[in-house]
Design brief:
It contains five helices and eleven strands. It is of the alpha+beta class. A seven-stranded mixed sheet has the order 5-3-4-6-7-8-9, with helices on both faces. The termini are far apart.
């Protein structure tokens, strides 16, 4: 029986792709993944998380949306919905953040699958993340996983302890800030 060999895309090949209108690409395990633009609930959660985490992090690190990173040296080019990177690592980025950010937050989208989120969580936690969070805007909850295999789901009325200090009120993520 004959088998078909599929060539994995390298990161160098990935870098040469044009930016398409209406979506962006990521490279997952050598395969090109088309990522659609997020809806407004997703964007609002990203904005609010960035704002809240920036306040909590202070000068200890950088928090931003859509941070590109390479969790593994080859065949990977990912983008976190929201991420925290320590100041030391941020200051040493040459062209790309190598390894996963210390905190990766993914806001669920209709296009996400459970298998995709599990894979992202595992790869990030095995390659530098201290925490990996999944924010579910429909159920207004946040799942926080750590490299030691623990996962806790935080819901309305609860606070999430942040490994870099402070706490994040779950309800504040889902409330649009004034001004």
């Amino acid at each position: 029986m004959a088998t078909t060999t599929t060539k994995l895309m390298t990161f160098a090949e990935f870098e040469q792709l044009p930016n398409p209108p209406g979506y962006r690409y990521e490279l997952h395990h050598g395969e090109l993944v088309k990522v659609p633009f997020p809806d407004f609930a997703h964007i609002r959660a990203q904005w609010q998380l960035r704002r809240l985490l920036e306040s909590a992090a202070g000068s200890a690190g950088v928090v931003d949306k859509e941070i590109a990173y390479r969790p593994l040296p080859e065949h990977e080019g990912w983008c976190a919905d929201v991420a925290y990177v320590s100041k030391q690592r941020w200051d040493n980025i040459d062209r790309y953040l190598m390894g996963a950010p210390e905190l990766v937050i993914e806001v669920l989208s209709p296009s996400n699958t459970a298998a995709e989120m599990l894979d992202k969580r595992n790869v990030c936690l095995e390659n530098g993340s201290r925490e990996f969070c999944i924010v579910d805007t429909d159920h207004r909850q946040v799942e926080v996983s750590t490299p030691d295999g623990h996962t806790i789901t935080y819901k309305s009325g609860q606070e999430i302890p942040l490994f870099f200090g402070g706490r994040l009120n779950v309800d504040s993520i889902f409330i649009a800030a004034e001004g």
